[in-house]
Write a sequence for this structure.
């Protein structure tokens, strides 16, 4: 009974499952929001000659959050912002430049550093501009005060001059504050830090790196329980494998033929026309897919296949799900040589006759 219900549901909703798989990464990406810097924080950050941006993903979030919070408490010269949730920590703080190296060592030990950018600028030119503005504002204020001291001014003229004096005074105060800030922040760095839990945010970089990598794939499907007169013991064939992200997300479209044919049986399945959407996931502790050789990963494929028979009658579309383990033999910026083994599971009443182990090998290149 359960098998019948599942088969009916998957047959009606196979397209929905496929679309859901396509949308899941987008939902995960949307969870992690960027840091919104206030105008006050931006003004403060502009008075530092060194800026550092760190984004770190961890699997043990509670311990990592405690370690970084303790580091900030002990070594930060000033904390501009610190927000904590059960899934992420966002902080902006000032740090002595000599403490940047210990911060790098700590974040590298806690997890995967997704972003580590260091930018330096010479504020000498900015100081010169501010001092020139200060001199102009001082001259302006002195000129306005001199005009106010002259007799014979109307009330309207004196009010206008007083407004000019107030603006010049405010400008001088702002310029003095900026110069004092630059002077007091010498030898310090402004750090923007985001720490996130990889379990809650599996794609914490908030970016999808799209690629255009067509390729070919060979597949060999060995059935667990081939049925005499209905199926061959194994099917093999070729398909187009099209990678769309470096994640990796891809589409498969191909045909598998029986290894041993049986032309006398009308119900014999002589062709499987397969279409799937798949994604691969790299382990956190084994290079995360960044090595040139031998990247391990897990994968799933979701889609279906059309069964063709000798009689050309009774053809049907059957949803299927594959779960597997793969190994990238060679991976560069331009080519990918990939292998995987998965368990091929049709989601209908003929699952027993058509399920089995599927081995695949593919070659893709940047087009």
């Amino acid at each position: 009974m359960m098998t019948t219900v599942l088969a009916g549901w998957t047959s009606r909703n196979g397209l929905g499952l496929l679309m859901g798989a396509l949308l899941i990464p987008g939902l995960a990406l949307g969870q992690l929001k960027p840091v919104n810097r206030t105008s006050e924080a931006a003004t403060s950050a502009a008075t530092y000659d060194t800026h550092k941006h760190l984004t770190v993903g961890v699997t043990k979030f509670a311990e990592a959050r405690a370690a970084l919070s303790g580091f900030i408490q002990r070594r930060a010269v000033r904390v501009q912002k610190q927000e904590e949730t059960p899934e992420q920590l966002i902080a902006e703080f000032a740090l002595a430049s000599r403490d940047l190296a210990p911060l790098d060592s700590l974040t590298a030990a806690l997890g995967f550093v997704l972003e580590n950018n260091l930018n330096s600028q010479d504020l000498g030119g900015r100081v010169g501009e501010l001092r020139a503005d200060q001199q102009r504002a001082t001259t302006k204020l002195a000129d306005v005060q001199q005009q106010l001291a002259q007799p014979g001014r109307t009330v309207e003229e004196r009010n206008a001059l007083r407004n000019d004096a107030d603006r010049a005074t405010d400008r001088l105060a702002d310029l003095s504050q900026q110069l004092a800030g630059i002077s007091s922040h010498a030898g310090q760095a402004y750090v923007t830090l985001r720490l996130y839990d990889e379990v809650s945010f599996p794609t914490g970089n908030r970016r999808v790196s799209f690629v255009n990598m067509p390729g070919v794939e060979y597949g060999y499907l060995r059935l667990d329980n081939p049925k005499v007169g209905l199926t061959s013991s194994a099917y093999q064939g070729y398909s187009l494998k099209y990678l769309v992200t470096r994640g990796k997300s891809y589409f498969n479209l191909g045909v598998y033929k029986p290894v041993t044919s049986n032309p006398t049986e009308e119900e014999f399945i002589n062709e499987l026309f397969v279409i799937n959407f798949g994604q691969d996931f790299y382990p956190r502790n084994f290079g995360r897919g960044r090595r040139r050789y031998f990247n391990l990963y897990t994968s799933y494929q979701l889609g279906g296949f059309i069964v063709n028979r000798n009689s050309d009658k009774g053809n049907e579309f059957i949803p299927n799900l594959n779960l597997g383990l793969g190994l990238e033999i060679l991976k560069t910026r331009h080519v990918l040589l990939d292998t995987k083994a998965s368990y091929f599971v049709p989601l209908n009443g003929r699952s027993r006759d058509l399920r089995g182990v599927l081995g695949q090998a593919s070659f893709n290149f940047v087009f």
In short: Residues 1-35 have pLDDT under 50 and may be disordered. The chain has seven helices and 13 strands. The helical segments are 2-31, 39-45, 61-75, 100-110, 124-149, 155-184, 351-354. The longest strand covers residues 293-309.
